[in-house]
Design goal:
This protein is α/β, with parallel strands linked by helices. 44% of the residues lie in helices and 16% in strands. The protein folds into three domains: 3-63, Transferase, Pyrimidine Nucleoside Phosphorylase, Chain C (Transferase, Pyrimidine Nucleoside Phosphorylase, Chain A, domain 3, Up-down Bundle); 78-157 and 168-325 and 431-439, Nucleoside phosphorylase/phosphoribosyltransferase catalytic domain (Pyrimidine Nucleoside Phosphorylase, Chain A, domain 2), CATH 3.40.1030.10; 330-419, Pyrimidine nucleoside phosphorylase-like, C-terminal domain (Aldehyde Oxidoreductase, domain 3), CATH 3.90.1170.
Length: 448
């Protein structure tokens, strides 16, 4: 088969056969089809889309393109959770220890920061000694002994996705729902989880800014799970502002520890309970979402969640004492507040800009080769709907040097919108997506 014919077919808006999709995935994984032809087909897919069958076929082809983790040696259902990426969004470090403390087995495959979003692996590596490069055998052993492990994508997991992702990143073809859905779900399936809870972000800091697109992405991923025989459940949650107050690697680890030790609460905990309770239901540790939340809160109050995080950090080579003394985490030497340029209600945030602001400070990578500064970032002092007087701090910057302050202050002042009118509160969960239905928060569904 001539690859040009496949490109022409998709360009004309026709569905590709399973065989054609196989050639596409295999050609990307092995390099047997040149990048320019793969890229042309990616762009045609962006314009013409893929139907449910094509998207599932692409997912399965990418999943089978490399190693697949076999977790069948572990008793019960291993659950995983995946977020499409956000800012100040460290639900993993809050919910993994809590649900593991409730008896669930969590096999969590995490990623690094991407663009303006933070990544769990970078956060874990800010803990002195903590490693995310664990062999498959140790991964399984750790889940059997302490109930949870968080590791990075091994070298040969979904090589087709690796190749396609790298091309999409540089050809303007990232933002395409069937490509995103197949990319995410293929990795989740290859990592062996028995059930998956997805956190699809929506709003100014999300991959998908509109609720309509976010729900479409969630529905596409749930449909793939359904066809692959894997239970997948998705929540569409708000990324209209950083989820937690802390943005930056060691700072986000600190916030997770503060929550697990009962010293902090807020939206980060609330979303972690929404996601984690559904993991407990999927894993069979709770009969209902309500019971799951109660169990997680009991594990929080008893300190069992914090002890589980200590065990996980220790098992992965890190210093567990950070859980009792967060000053053992890397600390930035310079703290400078961002003054509000005027008085008013906090009426909106450009959350992507806040993510990029911390990236420029060193908390993320602009180039693949950049080295992250684990200590830097910021702590938000306001949330949407708060009233501030001119000069009051919007955020506290944690910087490597004073020279970084000027740019970060103007970026943050531009990212936080102030207005005379108090904005209406936004929901934390906008939609609940399961295989048989999508339920919206009150007032948010499509017009009837
Ligand atoms: N995360 C992924 O793994 N793939 C995408 O396409 C987008 C986000
Ligand atoms: Ca295989």
């Amino acid at each position: 088969m001539n690859f040009v014919d496949i490109i022409l077919k998709k360009k004309a808006g026709l569905p590709l056969t399973d065989e054609e999709i196989h050639l596409f995935a295999e050609g990307a994984a092995t390099g047997s089809v040149p990048d320019y032809q793969i890229s042309a087909l990616l762009m045609a897919i962006c314009f013409q889309g893929m139907d449910a069958r094509e998207t599932t076929t692409l997912t399965m082809e990418m999943m089978h393109s490399g190693d697949e983790v076999d977790l069948s040696d572990i008793d019960g259902v291993c659950v995983d959770k995946h977020s499409t990426g956000g800012v100040g969004d460290t639900t993993t470090l809050v919910l993994v220890p809590l649900v593991a403390a409730c008896g669930a087995h969590v096999a969590k495959l995490s990623g690094r920061g991407l663009g303006h979003t933070g990544g769990t692996l970078d956060k874990l590596e800010s803990i002195p000694g903590c490693s995310i490069n664990i062999s498959e055998a140790d991964f399984i052993r750790q889940i059997k002994t302490i109930g949870c492990a968080v590791i990075g994508q091994t070298q040969n997991l979904c090589p087709a996705d690796k190749a396609l992702y790298a091309l999409r990143d540089v050809t303007g073809t990232v933002g395409c729902i069937p490509l995103i859905a197949s990319s995410i779900v293929s990795k989740k399936l290859a990592s062996g989880a028995g059930a998956i809870v997805l956190d699809v972000k929506t709003g100014s800091g999300a991959l998908m800014h509109t609720l309509e697109d976010s729900v479409k992405l969630a529905e596409a991923m749930v449909a793939i799970g359904q066809q692959a025989g894997k239970p997948i459940y998705a929540l569409v949650t708000g990324m209209d502002q950083p989820l937690g107050t802390h943005v930056g690697n060691a700072l986000e680890v600190k916030e997770a520890i503060d929550i697990l030790s009962g010293q902090a609460k807020g939206d980060l905990l609330s979303v972690s309970l929404e996601l984690g309770s559904r993991m407990l239901v999927a894993g069979g540790q709770a009969d209902s979402v309500e019971e799951g939340k109660e169990k997680m809160l009991a594990a929080l109050e008893s300190g069992a969640g914090l002890r589980k995080l200590e065990e996980m950090i220790a098992a992965q080579g890190g210093n567990p004492a950070v859980c009792r003394d967060t000053s053992l985490l890397p600390q930035a030497p310079v703290l400078i507040p961002v003054p509000a340029p005027a008085s008013g209600y906090v009426s909106g945030m450009d959350t992507t800009a806040i993510g990029y602001c911390t990236q420029h400070m060193g908390a993320g990578r602009a180039l693949k080769t950049d080295v992250i500064d684990p200590a830097v970032g910021l702590v938000m002092q306001v949330r949407l709907g708060d009233y501030v007087e001119a000069g009051q701090p919007l955020a506290m910057l944690h910087l490597r040097s004073e020279q970084q302050a000027k740019e970060a202050i103007s970026a943050m002042q531009a990212a936080v919108r102030l207005s005379d009118v108090k904005p209406a509160p936004l929901p934390l969960v906008y939609a609940y997506v399961s295989a048989d239905k999508t339920v919206y928060a009150d007032g948010y569904g499509p017009a009837k």
